[in-house]
Amino acid sequence: MSDLALPPWLRGPRWWALLTLGLALGFSAVTVTRLPDMTLVPLAAGWLFLARRWRWGAPPPPEPPARVWPWSLVPLILWGIYVFLADRFGIVDLGAVFFHLQAGISEHGGGRLVVAALFTLAMLLVLAAFTWLVRVDFRWRRRERLLAVALLVGNPLLIDLGQRGAAIVTEDGAWLDRQYVAPVIREAPPTPPNLLIFYLESLERTYANRERFGDAYAPLAALGERGVVFEGVRQLDNTGWTMAGMIASQCGTPLMPAGLLHDRQFEPLERVVPGVTCLGDLLDARGYALSYLGGASTRFAGKGRFYTDHGFDRVRGRETLAPRLDDPDYLNSWGLFDDSLYGFVEEEVRRLEAEGGPWGLVSLSLGTHPPNGFPARACRERQGEFDGVDILYSVECSAWLVSRLVRRLEAEGLLEDTLVVIASDHLSMRVSAWDRLIAGPRANTFMLIGNDLPPRRIRVEASTMDVLPTVLEAMGFSLDRHRAGLGVSLFAGAPTLVEEHGLETLNARLKEETALQERLWQGVDIRPPFPPAEIPPPRSTAAPGAPGTASAD
């Protein structure tokens, strides 16, 4: 299309640049707040109105355009990173960013990588538009340094980083560590029960609200009527992603990344939280045969390392399970669909039962992975066509599949003397039902079935750290003061840390804590990359090859 075919006001770069900035401003405001998505349009329109009113990009004489680079480019990039994380995950957790960089992001589901590429392209357009505006309009050029400072000071990512960095000089960096109770089993039942844990990816109990989500959670609600259902299991910082959620519920502690305050914070992890005793360690010491099965790769985020480090004999993920599928193409971008995974879970239960002795099996689903989930073929046959967007379709699918499997295993007598745990690994990140999810208090799924537990509901303010002692006591084990890690058994009636101090206080303490972090990673090398004796000598300025000098390869 030639310039002559465009209206006069669209023939130059001015309004294209201003429109780009207006859309970016509106998108950012909607993403980082709870404003409805439709607010983007009036926000962008308001920006364009002000631009027209004050003639931004078309200043009066006398100053000509200047070839300068805005001071705000780097602050804008940092805001772009924050907006991207908020858009993809809903809640930005800096600890999750650090941990995934440390533990490895290979075998990542590819969908977000495409989105990241598109977001990067959009960010480049924003930077180009802002640079044009500053160069053309001397009024923006004169005040732009103040904008750069405001962008830096107001960036939540930098605020969080500053708070974590301040932990180095905090007066009390051991408050949480003083609350920590090393998990110790004092007494065990004569015949310990088996343990079957289903982690349901992001399938939080909030979905049980029928007014907001209809019957999406109904299969799980029906299953919970036969067991103990805990209401009010909240989410602390550093427990809001898969590895952190599993460590919180199995080790009784938040996952504070290794070396966040040290020089080698981006070195690959060889071990995962070796300094604490977790569920697998306790059961392994009691002779349990332990298995982990997950639909995603065990190499992603250190899952394989965690389970092999903490007593599990068999750790299986996409790498070993996908080649065993009848249909090798029946995979999603992360790994196995849940119906395939649960087929392997059933097979593993049969194997463990045949071997005899107490056993434990942990599985992790993918069906409700944000942003849209991966509903299985079996659900599409039952629920009809999936529109590719509605997370509630995926929630119902995942809830139905796990309920169906539990009932089938029970019917065949494979769950006698077995405690079944059904839990969400963490609260959901941003999904199609996000506005409804954050419209009220949120809680994780946590229910126990079997082992002669009388059905009931327990309403308590707790966190996923309380899962470890609760599961152990439900299995019949006795704990010192009903405590394990930072958790307390929800059967004991003793106050939890959430009840005593509240989520805000605990999250604030987490940002200051250093002693618990050191406990988690005790034994992991977090020294500077060059010990004092190994620091390379400075290069000599003498000619290459001269006596007493070193030449770079």
From TrEMBL:
Stated name of the protein: Phosphoglycerol transferase
Biased composition (Pro residues): 528-539
One Gene Ontology molecular-function label: phosphatidylglycerol-membrane-oligosaccharide glycerophosphotransferase activity
Compositional bias (Low complexity): 540-553
PANTHER family: LIPOTEICHOIC ACID SYNTHASE, PHOSPHOGLYCEROL TRANSFERASE I
GO cellular component: plasma membrane
EC number: 2.7.8.20
Spans traversing the lipid bilayer: 15-32, 39-56, 76-101, 113-134
Subcellular location: Cell membrane
Domain Sulfatase N-terminal: 245-476
Lipid bilayer topology: Multi-pass membrane protein
Keywords assigned: Cell membrane, Membrane, Transferase, Transmembrane, Transmembrane helix
Region (Disordered): 527-553
Pfam families xrefs: Sulfatase
Top-level taxon of origin: Bacteria
